[in-house]
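Changelog entry: the Class I SAM-dependent methyltransferase record was regenerated in this release. Current contents:
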Amino acid sequence: MKEKSIDRKDQQANKIFERRTLSSDYRTIIPLLSPGMEILDVGCGTGTLTNEVATYIGDGTITGLDNTPSFIDSGNEHYGSTQNLNLVCNNIFDYQPPHPFDLIITARTMQWLSDIPRALGLFKSWLKPGGQISILDYNHTSIE
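Regenerated structure tokens:
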């Protein structure tokens, strides 16, 4: 299956990412977070929400994964001092996780994937026993 390609240069995506917060954009994830968790954020963009998740998990770790180098570079510039945060530039289908995760989160990402069933299979294989996947999306046709 051919990979989808997104031309993100000349977009103002970074400004949109920087306005997002867990309480306004992904509040359903907050009750799932606890200290010590190992979390993967798939399609993390610049890592704004990823960085906020890091504040909820104490000595746990969160890895943000995105395939746009400029987003990861921007995230590392802004959030590089967050000790339990690691931002990685890679394609979901090429990514080799260093360890299994307690939770995999993905927000506004699935529609960009060329093979959603394969991605879901990968996510499942990357979880610890009893781990969870949280997918946030919205109805694109009702946005005005």
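The beta strands are 38-42, 61-66, 85-89, 101-107, 127-136.
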